[in-house]
């Protein structure tokens, strides 16, 4: 089951198991992209680290979309 892309104003769905739609995922800065992947694989050990990486990635893309 797909879930909506969390980027403000996006009407696309993210593929199952993905954080956001592909066009927006490509806008995530490389360091944040890596942080999301790294923390996803250890989510059972430290779920807060994943939440922080996920939220930072979403904020970064929202800022790019807003032209900041």
β-strand percent reads 5-15%
The count of DSSP E runs of length 2 or more, i.e. the number of strands, is 2
Oligomer state equals single chain
Structural class: mainly alpha
Low-confidence stretches: none
Helix-strand pattern, N to C?
EEHHH
Q: Provide a count of the helices.
A: 3
**What's the gyration radius in Å?**
12 Å
Beginning-to-end CA distance, first to last residue:
32 Å
Strand order of the largest sheet: 1-2
Give the averaged pLDDT, no decimals. 95
Shape: globular
Largest sheet: 2 strands, antiparallel
Which range best describes the helical content: under 10%, 10-25%, 25-40%, 40-55%, 55-70% or over 70%?
A: 40-55%
Secondary structure elements and pairings:
Blueprint: E1 3-4, E2 13-14, H1 22-25, H2 30-40, H3 47-65
Antiparallel strand pairs: 1-2
Structure description:
With 68 residues, the protein is mainly α. The chain has a domain of 47 residues. Helices cover 50% and strands 6% of the residues. It has 3 helices and 2 strands, in the order E-E-H-H-H. It has a two-stranded antiparallel ribbon. The longest helix is centred in the C-terminal third of the chain and has 19 residues. The radius of gyration is 12 Å and the shape is globular. The mean pLDDT is 95.
Q: Quick recap of the structure?
A:
With 68 residues, this protein is mostly helical. The protein has three helices and two strands. It has a two-stranded antiparallel ribbon.
């Amino acid at each position: 089951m797909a879930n909506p892309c969390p980027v403000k104003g996006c009407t696309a769905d993210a593929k199952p198991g993905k954080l956001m739609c592909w066009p927006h995922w490509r806008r995530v800065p490389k360091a944040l992209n890596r942080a999301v992947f790294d923390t996803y694989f250890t989510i059972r050990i430290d779920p807060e680290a994943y939440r922080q990486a996920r939220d930072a990635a979403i904020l970064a893309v929202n800022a790019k979309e807003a032209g900041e």
